[in-house]
Fold this sequence. Notes:
The protein has 20 helices and 11 strands.
Amino acid sequence: xxxxxxxxxxxxKAMPVLQILENAGxxxxxxxxxVRDVLLHRHVHDVDITTSAYPEEVKELFDKSIDTGIKHGTxxxxxxxxxxxxxxxxxxxxxxxFRRPDHVTFVQNLDxxxxxxxxxxxxxxxxxxxxxxxxxxxxxxLKNHVIRxxxxxxxxxxxxxxxxxxxxxxxxxxxxxxxxxxxxAIKDNHKLLKKISVERIREEFVxxxxxxxxxxxxxxxxxxxxxxxxxxxxxxxxxxxxxPQLKFSPTMxxxxxxxxxxxxxxxxxxxxxxxxxWKNSNAMTEQVExxxxxxxxxxxxxLSDYELFLAGxxxxxxxxxxxxxxxxxxxxxxxxxRYMALPIKKASELAVDGRFLIDxxxxxxAKLGQTLNKxxxxxxxxxxxxNQEAIESYLTTIE
Length: 399
Ligand code: ATP
Ligand code: MG
């Protein structure tokens, strides 16, 4: 049996939580992503715990807990300044419409719980002594970099079609390949993805797109036809096929969406709808619109200082990132240098405001707004210095 000795701090800190459960006569294990990632020597961002104790029993053992998903057996326990999701051993049943189970059944042993998990590499558990429980040869699959469904892939994807998206996102994050039957089952069942909520698909798609091996995974996303059953991608394989050919892949979510929009050659007036179809937030949509807008300007002419100012630092950096990914030749350093050298970078840095103009006899209204904009533009482009005297003497020239 394999045993891990030098556990990262995130596990040692959580160990007392397992101990408390064990001392009360229950079984408790670390499970899922954290066990997989520690074995791969990857960074572990959180640890999930699975136990034979019922949610009510878990709650009695800890001072502070939150009923995160008590119906599904999950309680969040606060301990030592950290929070831990503790889920009772369970099986899932009554999958309707190829979605999440409509109810769960608590079970008394770990084996049943591990059986319901999606892939062998995600079905590993670790006990308080660091010993690994591996019922489905997940350790071999980890060693061989293989993503393999637990049990019959066909059946598992019928239970929950999101697992097909999860398979390709783990490819991207881990640089693993799909085991052949698992891949074939995705190819045969990609249509089931239509039953899954866009929010859940988006979450996996973004992880796929931002993973270090996104281009390889994206190729499989296309080859298995999963791409046909996500919003607005149907019939667009030819355009999307450029993604795997790119020299780089995105590292920021707004770059990912901008890149996809550019590949799909979406006209500006369709961006909003596209982003909404994917259930993106308004904030994300706004960022993407700003990036695409600046990208268009950048591709058509040399940017003026004022255009750089209006874009702002964040949009500029994001747009440079996107241009870099699509191989658009731009002198990014020069652009950043020019931006950094702007006399002001925010409207609030202007030496005057509306009050200043009113004190000098201007009436509030549209004209005042226009004058303020003009001053800002002249200051940004270096034609008027950013101080009250210089601006005042400019004002005398337009009276
Ligand atoms: P990440 O590092 O992205 O958090 P993870 O493996 O922890 O990866 P989660 O979505 O946090 O993924 O899920 C935790 C665990 O729950 C998984 O490792 C897997 O065992 C199980 N799991 C999650 N989603 C499913 C699913 N749709 N079907 C079956 N098991 C699942
Ligand atoms: Mg996780």
